[in-house]
Amino acid sequence: MEITTQMIKELRGATNAPMLDCRKALQEADGDYQKAVDWLREKGMATAAKRSDRDASNGVVEMYSHGNGRVGVMVEINCETDFVARAEKFRILAHEIALQIAASSPKYITAESIPAADLEHEAGIARARAVEEGKPEKMMDKIVEGRLEKYKDEVCLMRQTYIRDESMTIEKLILQNIAAIGESVIVRRFQRWELGESTK
After folding, report:
1. From CA 180, how far away is CA 13, in angstroms rounded?
2. Alpha-carbon distance 97 to 78, whole Å?
3. Residue 121 and residue 50: Cα distance in Å, rounded?
4. What are 119-171's pLDDT values in tens digits?
5. What domains can be seen in the chain, in order of their start residue?
6. The overall pTM is greater than 0.90
7. Nearest Cα to 48, choosing from 81, 80, 18, 91?
């Protein structure tokens, strides 16, 4: 696939990585934007891992309550140093992520954290729906795969569209902040409660 200047600019805009790295990432990912972001992240994480033996164990637990206490969110966001943990930019990011969780109800942080049983269950639903809609058998696997990707976009925090800017995902928002802050930023865990919801 041809790697265009526009593709490189878009990736650079989201990740703040050098142009040559963005070109290389897109070449390695055969033009797949998400895979290129992952490639750059892995490269960045590998670089971060080389920096002493600091880990992302500082940070903040952000709490947010919405709708007069109808929805509550608690999220742990980690960074490498206490200095960054106290910085306003980091605190704002933690608050934005809590708002996102309150508004969009993700179930998981990343697609990799979805249990295999849940994916199988969703695949079964997608296949049954496709059969019900009379989709051709030869297209079935592609349809199921497409619907599974859409499901991941809905339930994974990192893949969700940012509520304040539809042109970016939460992963892009975090990558931009990593570039600005200069430290690794990790969403460690979160919990969302809604008044009256049943717990399984």
Report:
1. 12
2. 12
3. 40
4. 999 999 998 988 888 888 888 889 889 999 999 999 999 999 999 999 999 99
5. 5-50 (1.10.8.10), 58-109+163-194 (3.30.479.20), 115-155 (1.10.286.20)
6. no
7. 80
